[in-house]
Specification:
Layout (H helix, E strand, L loop, with lengths): L8 E10 L3 E4 H5 L6 H8 L3 E4 L6 H16 L8 E5 L10 H8 L7 E4 L5 H14 L5 E8 L12 H4 L5 E10 L5 E9 L7 E2 L13 H6 L5 E2 L1 H22 L9 E4 L4 H11 L10 H4 L6 H12 L7 E8 L3 E8 L1
Parallel strand pairs: 4-5, 4-6, 11-12
Antiparallel strand pairs: 1-7, 2-3, 6-7, 8-13, 9-10, 12-13
Helix pairs in contact: 3-4, 8-9
């Protein structure tokens, strides 16, 4: 998407998060499949994750995150002019989760849409939100990344390599036009390589055959997420540094100019590998995958909120957010908080 130049900037003015009540430990998973706490920690760094329980929903977590972000920004729901929801796990096949969140916020006929960019969804959302505001059409947008993936996981030996990785939750940000220049969302670059779409995803249900779901789909496990882990890892540790350097080059900056780094929380080993290879000091990187697992589009906004709340990210901090996910999609956003 080309840059759109208008006066002022598009800034993140508030952040929030919402999580399921249920905490699932590695030992809990060991009761469902042939795995162990040691095995999961060594390969992913994950210790616990949050999973949906009865009475909870994606739009419910999104609402909690949105309300927290609105409060932080000093705004009310009526101040929102557009709603963006990044998710790969919609509340229903259709309509999108955005419809349910918009209704829970009491927004009447306020427009909105879902973004399907998987783990890169929040980065794509920053790009879309910035462009919508920069175009002059809107002044204030709610962006939410929300996922409930636990219900689709195959909690058995066949699906364990994927099942142990994912968690549920939501993170939100308020994007606003501000008069100052040089602050807010400085630059976003996104990429897509559809030729690798079959390396990570859920094949069924889908509109590729006459029957929505057949017994064979259940038997073969195509209704559950499947991943070529080694291929995904190799591409993630290549593409993420590439796009980071692209953003820095376009902004005439160096790695040391960035105050803080937020990587998508897919695998702690990926993040450690990238930080070490790029010479990024550990104290400038925040990881919460240990607590929450991979929350896909919710991972970066939840991490952002925790860092803002704890003071790790302060007003004026220059933050680089980078993600890689199914599709393959990836992207990086440089933001002055």
């Amino acid at each position: 998407m080309a840059d759109v130049m208008v006066s002022g900037s598009v800034k993140i003015t508030g952040t929030g998060m919402g999580l399921p009540k249920r905490i699932v430990t590695n030992d809990d998973l060991a009761k469902m499949m042939d795995t162990s706490d040691e095995w999961i920690r060594q390969r992913s760094g994950i210790e616990t994750r949050r999973w949906l329980t009865d009475g909870e929903s994606p739009s419910g977590f999104a609402l909690e995150a949105a309300q927290m972000a609105l409060k932080a920004a000093g705004r009310e729901p009526k101040d929102i002019e557009f709603v963006l929801v990044a998710t790969l796990s919609p509340e229903q096949y259709f309509p999108g989760t955005c419809s349910f969140l918009q209704a829970k916020l009491g927004l009447g006929t306020t427009p909105g849409l879902d973004i399907r960019a998987q783990c890169s969804g929040f980065i794509y959302g920053l790009e879309v939100g910035k462009a919508l505001i920069a175009s002059g059409q809107y002044n204030r947008i709610l962006l939410v990344g929300v996922e409930v993936q636990s219900v689709a996981l195959e909690k058995a030996n066949r699906g364990r390599d994927v099942a142990v990785l994912f968690g549920d939750g939501a993170g939100a940000a308020i994007l606003e036009r501000v008069p100052e220049s040089g602050v807010g969302i400085r630059r976003v670059i996104t990429k897509l390589e559809g030729i690798n779409a079959d390396k990570l995803g859920v094949a069924c249900p889908g509109a590729t055959k006459l029957n929505w779901i057949e017994p064979k789909d259940i038997e073969d496990g195509t209704i559950h997420p499947r991943m070529d882990g080694k291929f995904v890892f190799k591409n993630a540790v290549t593409r993420m540094p590439e796009i980071i350097m692209d953003v820095l080059a376009k902004e005439n900056l160096k790695i040391e100019d960035v105050d803080f780094w937020l990587f998508h929380q897919a695998n702690l080993r990926i993040n450690e590998h990238i930080a070490q290879a790029m010479g990024i000091p550990p104290e400038k990187v925040y990881n919460n995958i240990q607590k929450y697992g991979n929350m896909s589009a919710a991972s970066i906004p939840v991490a952002l909120n925790e860092c803002v709340q704890s003071g790790k990210i302060k007003k004026g901090s220059l933050v680089m957010m980078t993600a890689f996910g199914a599709g393959f999609t990836w992207g990086s956003a440089l933001v002055r908080m």
